[in-house]
Amino acid sequence: MENETGLSEQNLFFTASRPKLCLQPNQISQGLYHCTPMAKKLLAYTIAELKVIRWHDNPNKIRYQTTFTVSDFIKALGLQKQKQSSNQKEIIREALLELQKSCIAIDTGKEFHTFPWVEHSCYTEDEKKILIDINHNLGEALIQLQKGYTEMQLLTVGKLKSLYALRFYELGKSYAGFEGKNGNPKGEWHIDLTVEQIRKMFVLGEKDYEGRMTNFITKVIKQPLDEVSKKTDLSMTFEKAKEGRNIAGFRFHCKWKTAPVKIKKTEPKAIKELKAEINAEEQEIERIKADGYLGMIWDECYEQALIKFTDEGKTEEEAGRAAKAKAYTYMVDKGFIKKPDPKQEKEIEGQLTFPEF
Questions:
Q1: Around Cβ 322, how many Cβ atoms within 10 Å?
Q2: Long-range contacts of 257-261 (CB under 8 A, 24+ apart)
Q3: What CATH architecture does domain 176-256 belong to?
Q4: Check: CATH 1.10.10.10 for 7-159?
Q5: Which residue, among 7, 148, 150, has the nearest Cα to 65 in the 3D structure?
Q6: Coil/strand/helix, residue 208
Q7: Dihedral, 140, 143, 149, 152 alpha carbons, nearest 10
Q8: Would you say 136 and 68 are in contact if contact means Cβ atoms under 8 Å apart?
Q9: What values do phi and psi take at 17, rounded to 5?
Q10: Does residue 117 contact residue 104 with C-beta atoms inside 8 Å?
Q11: Domain boundaries in the chain?
């Protein structure tokens, strides 16, 4: 897109039509960094909206930039439903200062890179606008890291309050490509990490959570995973890996939350068939969500419907069910999902209590 100043803009991760989703290279999700939850949420929104800006009179001059209003940021992450601090300006300023000072390390196995997150940022009080210039070298690296993306809904990112929960959420999703592979059951995958790897990934100091391992497990592992399982589309659990009597690491088990409807042997045949159809539909939805292009369409429909129903005053649970039904109807109408047989539905109407969507 070209503007009047002789600049051209291009969305780096093709999210111009769907700004509620962050497509983040897996190397970022698995990178070594630490920041506050607010700084992480600003980063997620920045990456989701990141644009490549070029000067026509100087093709070599490139900037990786995002400009947005505070209200757009709050709405995209669903933060308007949370209790807001009266000192919002200071919280934003502190987050921007932190991003300016902090960095991320990316270990590809063959090369180890370090990048500052931000080159320049600006918060305009009168317009309540935030401008963030991603570090140029990091922007160049993001272009090169085109293989494998972590897909995160910004509304889900907004729900998580712990940094470790945010890190485990993006980490779990970054390994979703191993779902059903390497001996994993269908719909599940796992991640093996040593204690040292976790400490490095989360940039923990030598004295952070030193002493009893139970403190490390509770604060860094168990509580964050419980938050991820409660507030996101992932269920994450862990088991300890021991060397002798010592805990050397952990295996993190990940799976999608959608559970099949139980079919009882004593139920009428028609109900069994419809329940099987419901389970097939859920599997089809998961297939759609896992597909790069179709998954983006699904997420866009779901997120727009979720915001609409939330704004109408529905509870989070009610809005989630209604948004899923709305997105499902859209995907059926467009031919992405096979429509169930209406005759079968009518045949047993009133006999079956459907699972809550």
A1: 18
A2: 257/229, 257/233, 258/282, 258/285, 258/286, 261/355
A3: Orthogonal Bundle (1.10)
A4: yes
A5: 7
A6: coil
A7: 70
A8: no
A9: -90, -5
A10: yes
A11: 7-159, 176-256, 269-347
How far apart (Å, rounded) are the C-alpha atoms in residues 172 and 151? Answer: 11
CB 257 within 8 A of CB 234: yes
Q: How many whole angstroms separate alpha carbon 33 and alpha carbon 203?
A: 6
- Listed in order, strand segments (DSSP E) in 26-164 are 51-55, 58-69, 103-107, 112-116, 118-124, 129-134, 149-153
pLDDT of residue 213: 86
Confidence (pLDDT) at 200: 94
pLDDT along the chain (357 residues), means of 10: 48 45 86 94 90 74 89 85 66 91 88 92 92 88 70 87 96 91 87 95 87 88 94 91 90 81 75 74 67 67 82 79 83 69 43 35
Q: What is the DSSP string of 250-314?
A: EEEEEEES--PPP--TTS-HHHHHHHHHHHHHHHHHHHHHHSHHHHHHHHHHHHHHHHHHHHTT-
Q: pTM here?
A: 0.70
Which contiguous run of DSSP H or E holds residue 25?
strand 21-25
CA distance 151 to 21: 7
Specify the DSSP class assigned to residue 110: S
Q: Report the phi/psi class of residue 203: left, alpha or beta, with left for phi > 0 and alpha for psi in -120 to 50.
A: left
Q: Which amino acid is at 196?
A: E
